[in-house]
Design goal:
Blueprint: E1 5-7, E2 10-16, E3 19-32, E4 37-41, E5 47-48, H1 55-64, H2 67-70, H3 75-81, H4 89-101, H5 119-128, H6 140-152, H7 166-179, E6 188-190, E7 196-198, E8 200-201, H8 202-209, H9 220-235, H10 237-240, H11 246-253, E9 258-263, E10 267-272, E11 277-283, H12 288-301, H13 307-312, H14 314-317, E12 320-322, E13 328-333
Parallel strand pairs: 1-4
Antiparallel strand pairs: 2-3, 2-13, 3-4, 3-11, 5-8, 6-7, 9-10, 10-11, 12-13
Helix pairs in contact: 1-6, 1-7, 1-9, 3-6, 3-9, 7-8
Length: about 350
């Protein structure tokens, strides 16, 4: 009989001096390479909006459409389609060139402008007096991938953000197969970038992400798509987020042993490619400062990060709190009893 280890919620503590100032509770599920649940922290059935954490999985539709070959797309295109990029020049120029190749306009993207997450780029825009545009939206790569899929399959891309549009039906089908649930019946809402996002049980989200471990029974086309996405993310970690971002640093710093992806409101998914485990987690109060550390702790526990990696990635694995003077005044940590 398959045995599941059940533990209390992970807790992320934030201290000031020697006193705990804040606590964040985290639900998390660990699965093996077959998608079977191994360890549960808290509630594995908690309904979670994955948000951007499943962009790599949504990119499966792009690859399976045949667009990679048709449009001679590179690993960089596939990585940016899987990203929550920071909007620096490398990101926006890649998305802009891709749109041009498809004879599309920036305005064809449903995702609206927001300030780039990259601080240098943001300041350059302010100094130049230029507003942000839709290319700076962290989801512009994903949206361009969706438009590219529509063009490849000769479908009208207008209103591609609607629940009943062809591309959304296609995405739900792929996610249903990866997660092992019927996404047509999932509660849904509208994501920040304007397309539907679906509430799924946390264990189903972990199972879906385990597809990137490439150890489940897939068709040759599905396996090839997953392999291509995994390779693109490892090869182009900067395109997944940006310099100093947790996702980029973890993928690059582990030398491709781990793949991680953030989602809004305290969601993280990860896969340890070297040890064959994947996870999904959700911070109950939605705090990113807790989701990143919880993800780092799970990556350590599951063998994705070596002791040397933990040291080199200390800003993420052993984060400290600074005051405005730059002095260390506290830290973020997961109590040891939660890791027993």
């Amino acid at each position: 009989m398959h045995r599941i280890e059940r533990l209390a919620n992970l807790e992320v503590h934030v201290t000031r001096g020697q006193t705990v100032e804040s606590r964040h509770l985290v639900d998390a599920v660990v699965v093996d390479s077959k998608g079977q649940v191994v360890t549960v922290y808290g509630n594995e059935q908690a309904l979670v909006f994955p948000r951007s954490s499943i962009k790599m999985l949504q990119a499966v539709s792009l690859v399976e459409s045949g667009a990679i070959e048709k449009f001679s797309l590179s690993q960089a295109h596939l990585a940016i389609a899987s990203s929550s990029h920071w909007g620096d020049e490398k990101h926006t120029s890649l998305v802009g060139a891709w749109l041009n190749q498809l004879s599309l306009e920036i305005e064809d993207l449903v995702c609206h402008p927001h300030e780039p997450y990259d601080e240098k780029t943001r300041r350059q825009l302010i100094r130049s007096g230029q507003p942000s545009n839709r290319l700076h939206n962290n989801c512009s790569g994903k949206h361009t991938g969706l438009l590219c899929t529509c063009l490849m399959l000769k479908e009208n891309f207008k209103f591609y953000e609607k629940w009943d549009h062809f591309i959304q039906i296609r995405l739900r089908k792929v996610l249903s197969e990866l997660a092992g649930i019927d996404m047509e019946k999932a509660p849904w809402g509208v994501d920040g970038c304007g397309i539907p996002t679906y509430a799924v049980p946390l264990d189903s989200l972990a199972t879906a992400f385990s597809a990137l471990l490439l150890d489940r029974a897939w068709s040759p086309d599905r396996l090839a798509a997953l392999k291509a996405i995994q390779a693109a993310v490892i090869t182009e970690p900067h395109l997944i987020a940006g310099e100093s971002a947790f996702c980029t640093d973890m993928i690059r710093g582990s030398r491709g042993k781990v793949v991680v992806k953030t989602g809004a409101e305290g969601v993280y998914c990860g896969a340890c490619l070297n040890t064959g485990f994947a996870f999904a987690l959700k911070v109950k109060d939605g705090a990113t400062r807790a989701s990143e550390l919880a993800a780092a702790i799970l990556l350590q526990r599951l063998g994705g990060l070596s002791p040397e990696d933990v040291v080199s990635l200390a800003r993420h694995t052993r984060p400290v709190i600074h005051n405005w003077e730059g002095k260390i005044v506290g830290k973020r940590f997961v109590p040891e009893q939660e890791l027993a």
